[in-house]
Amino acid sequence: MNPRYRCLVLDHDDTVVNSTLEVNYPNMLDSLAILRPQATLTLEEFIEGNSDPGFNDWVRQRFGYTQQEVEWHYEFWRSNVMKRRPSMAPGMPAFLTRYHRAGGIICVATHSMRQMIEADYRTNCGFLPDYMNCWEEPAGHRKPNPYPVQEALRRFDLRPADVLVVDDLGPGLQMAEAAGVDFAAALWCCTTPKMEQLLSARANYVFRAVGQLEELVLGPAPGPKEAACHETACHRIQL
After folding, report:
1. How many other CB atoms are found less than 10 A from the CB of residue 70?
2. How does residue 235 score in pLDDT terms, banded at 50, 70 and 90?
């Protein structure tokens, strides 16, 4: 079996794991109850703020966080997210395992911590990605900078045509465009109409189920075909 793309550069939160609904949004509400008890925050605002301008700039603008509060929030979030890791998106463990066995190269470009990525892959897949670009990297080496893709090209002797970036937010799209590689919008976990419109207008592919990505990369999976979108796989905010 020869994968259509030799290398996948995968986002983690809300692409591989269901982090917003299961962990990150509830955690954000808990932190606001401590730092800004009068503040309100919708799920839509949280998703879009993480995409543009990015979490740290967004909490400074939206809630007036000081640098000390940004650092406190980060430690609060880190101490809680390792206690209960989110589930992987439906079909994701089987797809990643099948792609790995086919010789595909799995890279991760995420704003989450390496410890979290390793825990999720070990628990759900039994192996680690071939390369991980995580929050611990210098800011200039993290997406939307093209560095994670460029490093994957260098490490594995790849051409841009060999790589597909899969992400649910704008920074991944910007990274793919800057690196000159194809981009797939992952709309199977948690999204908003605004994010769907932004990603769909510029993506090479738009997927609402992991099975659609798998079929593109590896061909149809054995067994029953995965539904395009259902309540456990896709949460769409209605405005």
Report:
1. 14
2. very low
